[in-house]
Amino acid sequence: MAYKKRIDGREMDEPRKIECKVGVVPRADGSAMFRFGDTIAIAAVYGPKELHPKHLENPEGGLLRCYYDMLSFSVSERKRPGPSRRSSEISLITKESLAPVLQLEGFPNKVVDVHIEILQANAGTRCAGINAASMALAHAGIPMTDLVAAVSVGKIGDAVVVDLTKEEEDYEENGKKAATDIPAAFLLRSGKISLLQADGKIPPEDMKKAIEMAQKACIQIGEEQKKALKLLK
Amino acid sequence: MEASEIKEKKESKEEEKEEKEPRKIVVPGEVLASGQAYLPGEGTRREGKDIVASKFGLLQIEDRLVKIIPLSGVYMPRRGNAVIGKITDVTFNGWIIDINAPYGAFLPASECSGFVSKRDISSYYNLGDMLIAKILEVKSKGVDLTMRDKGLHRVEEGLIITINSNKVPRVIGKMGSMVNLIKDSTGCNIVVGQNGIIWIRGNDIEHELLAERTIKMIAENSFVEGLTDKVKEFLEKHKIKAK
Amino acid sequence: MEITTITKKRITEYASQGKRFDDRDLLEYRPISIRLGISNMAEGSAEVSIGQTKVVAGVKLAVAEPYPDSEEEGNLMVTAELSPLASENFQPGPPDVFAIEMARIIDRGIRESGIVDFKKLCIKKGELVWAVMVDIYPMNDDGNLIDAAALAAIAAVSSAVFPVLEGDKVSFGEFTTKHLPLTKDVPITLTFYKLENNILLDPTTREEESSDTRISIAISEKEGKEKEPIINALQKGGCKNSKNSPLTQEEMSLIIDIAVKEQRKIRKILNDALEEKSK
User: For residue B31, what are the CA distances in angstroms to A137, A231, C35?
Assistant: First the structure.
């Protein structure tokens, strides 16, 4: 069935309003806030630093650890504080989306910790988290080959769209789930994919189209990230 | 004008010129220059015909060398660096020092300038003591320090402050011009560790605090043009009236 | 790097002269700003900045069975998570004893003030009541987290509204304009820090690291013709490196007197913020 007009009036390939800023956690070595519309993520980076427990040390290079967490009041029904299976998985894919650009060979046996907190959630939280983390890592002076940008794309009804809201994620037709959510992350310069997930039905050609749309949107996101980093006062 | 005066004028003019040209802030992945004429320096690498930034910082192109002056990042110890550190542990043959870097540092008792009784190491230097030391060697497991050189000693009194180690060159200035400016203006003795730890010792707390504020101001504005003038203004504005 | 003995000596020397490194008086707070409604998913939320210290707090409501010993009363829970995002000293994992202590200090301040009218949180006696859950998260630690956290919590509670209730189920995400049933006994928490013989309020990180002990006092002012301050809760606690020096009775009396006086300044800042929001 047709999803001709988006619930909030956006174009199919239009992400929500982006806002980002660095240095929001002065105590951290690097930090940033990234926002897609109502979804707000804050990332703070500490490191490179000594790694404890020592048995986790990697003599070939530094370790990257990511922790994704949602504030209990970031969602409509209170989320119990503490890690969940979902946050553990998101922490892992966040790490894997950022690892390809980090150059940690110069820090054997050390660790870089990235902490992400979601202040307000309206879908796309893992992507907002990755965007904030990418800026925070650069802000912290970690050697990186590139910045990483992420956005969710998806299929709603018969339309392929960029940056789904929760309402769109929950879209139903005839009482059945009719939306597929596809979080994607790209290395900005090369356009290579470092994160891709999907949780629903989507025809192969639409998947390719969705990936293309995601990459285009990420170029736009990357420009915002760069602007925020260059706005040093 | 004497030869030395001419040289000084030329150097300060060069510094002025450097300061007046606003430095461009670049981000990882950004293309800085293209073509074989350029060489990749610190914080950059070559990708095909492009020279690309590997770090967040200020772009500097000198002749053909393209490099990044970092604005952030941890201190990477280098042999010969003078650093200021805090003793965090006493062992049977030396002291473990925190030099505010992701590296452990060790000062062997044998590297002290005086005699250290092996039976009572902590009576020489103890937990919590602040030392101005020099890096003897950097190994993968950690850093070895020495106190056997001019100007290295335990710090008895004053203020210890921390800035990002990448701002140290700006705080010191060319040939020490910036730090000397602060020393003269505040009457304080200032030792700037390459690791970003700084010791300030003045005649009273007010002068020490003025030195601290000036240093913090430089660290926060390290990329701004005309910084020397701004610092002079700042010191003049906050001059402490004689009691 | 944590504070060094020689800098600590300077801080203490200067404090004995009634002065601080940032030119504040010993009892002066850094600039305080309160932003309400920072998370649109919460029934109430606030972000408090004191200098560079930043804490956010949110209120979520749910319906639940009442506790057997208070069948006509709703309930309150306050938790604090010291996220490693806010400081290199915080570890990932379940709340450590300091997070728990902070949450319990703030909980007592709110609960014992009587500001929340628990009876009015009852929906159906013995069956259904409102549960008020306050969660506190520091976002940047530059000293004096307890006061920023307490202020954020009370600001969130004071500005919170009920979600829509349909029968005995909450429509999460839909809000009414009805505020929680609160009295005018608003608790303000001040934490005093002692540096040798000097008593100060709102320490920066360096001052906190130089302190020997801390005392948190929650004070509300009773409504009535003569405003009478009442202490709701008090906690003497330790500082970094497990320091927790004893206090003399004179020092404690002095602290109580100062608390009564200084809490009015913080109270005004809170009232201004709440008034601004209701416009």
Answer: 19, 18, 40
